[in-house]
Structure formats: C-alpha cells, structure tokens
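Students often ask what a holo structure prediction actually looks like on paper. The answer is less mysterious than it sounds. You provide the chain, you provide the ligand, and the output is a string of discrete structure tokens encoding the 3D arrangement of the protein together with s-citryldethia Coenzyme A.
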Amino acid sequence: MQDYVTLTYRGESFQLPVIVGSENERAIDILRLRKETGFITYDPGYANSGACMSSITYMNGEQGILRYRGIPVEELAEKSTFKETAYLLINGQLPKADELRNFSIMLNDHSLVHEDMKAFYQNFPRASHPMGILSAMVNALRSFYPELQTTEEEINFTVTRLLAKVRTMAAMSYKISRGHTLVYPRPDLAYCENFLNMMFDTPVRPYQLTKEVVRALEVFWILHADHEQNCSTTAVRVVGSGRVNLYAAISAGMSALWGPLHGGANQAVVEMLTAIHQDGGNFRGAVARAKDRNDPFRLMGFGHRVYKTYDPRARIMKRVCDDLLAALNLKDPLLDIAKELEEVALKDPYFIDHNLYPNVDFYSGIVLRAIGIPTNMFTVMFAIGRLPGWISQWKESMDDPHWRISRPRQIYTGPNETHYVPMQDRT
Ligand code: SDX
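The corresponding structure tokens follow.
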C-alpha cells in the first residue's frame, strides 16, 4: 500500500509518495514536486537529498555499518581479495571459480598501456602531483582506446581494461617522477603483487614481496572499494549522466577525490601528524586548534558526513596498522601520535557533541608509509581502491530507467530586472 506525506502551504495540501528502501530507509519522492506545487527543495551539499536508488553499497552512519552487495566489509576484509571484491561490486555477486579465473586473465592481458602514453608521462613537470597525472591520463585513455562502449560486452571489456591499466599507470607516474626505468606488469603476479613490483622493483635490487605487505594492500583497497554516494562517486554519476565515455566520467571522479576534505585527507593526515611530531608531539595543541571556530584548522581524518560513530573501516585500518608494523618490525612515531590524538579527541566534549570520530583516512596513511608509498601518492592509492566502486555506480546509473542528465535547480538571489548602461552614463 502506497504511503504518502502531506505538504500543506497556505491552506493548500499536496500528497507526496514515500519510498522505502530494503533497509527501511524512507524518502519523500519529489519527482513531481515542482510541477504540482511550484516549489523546489534547497539542500546545499545534498546532505538530505537522495540522488538515486542503488543496490550496491549500504551504509548506516548511526550504527557504523558498511556492506558491499549485502556483505559486511569486515567479512570481505578478512576473507576476500581486492580482485574478488571488485568483481562483486561490478557484477553484483561473488564470482564462481571460472568467472574469477577469466577475470584474472583479462586483468593480466590488459595490464599494459600503449607505449605512446610514455611520452605524455615524461613531459609532465617532475614535481607534478600524481593525482593530476592520473586523472589526465585516464581521460587520455579514450584517445588510445576509442572503441564504443554501448553493448554489455563492450562495456565489460572497457571496465576490465581500465581496472587492469590503472595500476600500471599509477606505478608509471611514480617511476618516471623518480627518473627510474619502468617496470612492466608480470603474468606470474596477481593484482596487488604486480602493483607493488611495478612500484618498487629495480634492475639492481629486485623487490622482495612479503605476504604481510600484500595482505595489507589487499585490505586497504577492499576498504576503499565503494562508499555509496560520496563526493567523487557523485561526480562520476553527474558527469556520466551526460552520456560521456567511462574514462572521462572516472577522470572527473579522480579530480573530486583529490580534495583534502575527501580522498586527499589521507595525505593531509600524515602531513598533520608530521607537523605535530616536528612540534615535539604537541597533539593537544592540534586538538585545541581543531575546536577553535576562528581557526580554519581541522583534525584531518576525523569527522564524516554519514558516520556519526566510528567509521568501521578506520577500526580495521587501525588493526592493519598494528599488524603490519609488528610484522615489519617497524616503529612509526606518527602512529603513536595518531593513537594519542584519537584517545584525547574521543573524550573531548567538542568531538563527542559533534559526533567526530576517526574516518578511513586517519590510519590509512600510516599503512601506506609502512608499505613505502610516497605521501603524494596516497590519494592515488585511494583512487585505485575506489575504481571498482565508481565503475559499478556508473554502470548502475547507465542502466537506471529513472536516470536523466543531472541538472539541479536554484533559488535566484541576484538583482531583479535592470538595463544596460552606456559607458558615459556609468558612475
Ligand atoms: C572521505 O562521503 C564519503 O563517504 C567520503 C569517504 C569515502 O569513502 O568516499 O568516506 C572518504 O572523504 C572521508 C572524509 C575525509 N576528510 C577529512 O578527514 C577532512 C576532515 N573532516 C572534515 O572536514 C569533515 O568532517 C567532513 C568534510 C568529512 C564532513 O564535513 P560535513 O559533513 O560537511 O560537516 P561540516 O564541515 O559541516 O562540520 C560539522 C561541524 C562543524 O562545526 P560547527 O560549525 O557545526 O560548530 O563539525 C565540525 C565543523 O567545524 N567539524 C570538525 C571536523 N569535521 C567537522 N571540527 C574539527 N575537525 C574536524 N575534522
């Protein structure tokens, strides 16, 4: 039985249908609002607006729940691989053995990039940020691979090709920025191992893969794989709604992720912790600044638009941090500072009142440091992890019968009608 809410304005009432999701979330369907009432809604930052219906990822911010296609992220982090999780997000179910084998073969076969792309990489200024290079080069893929993306088979081929190449492209930007010789993907290495080898292998010192580092990277990417309608996913959906090719839509998502309030936060967290370390470990000063409304400083890695409790990914990432540093027999002073910062903040009334808890970015940078990833590549690592999520959301939007070109309305607050003033009459 259809449920309704009633909107009453100056004695006139309008009935608006209620939509209920599979986890009993409710929404007011305003598809016909402007046509029937003349009203629009106003919601800067879209904190109260649902842009779509989606069956990919479920988050419950109050309870700290995150599930990909119904499976809790905790179970995937413990039992799955990034490749398998990517397949789950994009195809909607875990792969059978033959499906995973075919997926692996395709990821391997398409892991090289066109040799002509090297010239582009070599002509970026050496100090270019790897996120600017990656988003530009993903967009450039269209020029090298102009095949159509219309049939299901063409789309799946393009999707797998992008997943295969993104690691190679990321490692290329790192090697070229260091003036190192490129390392090519190897057919005998799986997804994560190949990336690590392309990043750190050198002709004079072969890279030694360790199972602890590989597992830490798998879990890192699993935890980042999707997060429903976040800023960068919204960018992918909005740009994709113009029916542009996949590469351009993903490139837009990468640009959105780069911001320090979003995926750039993992780099900003390590820069913040480093500054605290250099300031003699004065984390209490950082907490005081974060609480000062006159100070733009924020505790990076804390707070979230949806989670009003501990980000479930941060809890897992903290454990990965401890396990990896112990396995590598590493001590990182930034981890000690992060833990002290968390302990003080979680007891502070300001953070409690504002529901500010560590998010995925708070510990992730320390994991990446332990792996040996340079700080300016932290957001690239986030982007590689989020790629399956962006792709799955893009595909879902392309198949959504309700999905139209994104074109929000506005409330105009500018001048009422006025007229052109000739130069000689301007005062
Ligand atoms: C990601 O959306 C996603 O799902 C994103 C993500 C994903 O996987 O895709 O989870 C990844 O982007 C995680 C977030 C990474 N960003 C950071 O860690 C940057 C620091 N955090 C923030 O700037 C902030 O918390 C946001 C951007 C994450 C959320 O911002 P909102 O929801 O717009 O909240 P807000 O900025 O309006 O803040 C509400 C209040 C304000 O105080 P009042 O003016 O109401 O008194 O909380 C305060 C803010 O000042 N506040 C903080 C704070 N975050 C919010 N105060 C100090 N330190 C902080 N980190």
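The two ends are 65 Å apart (CA to CA).
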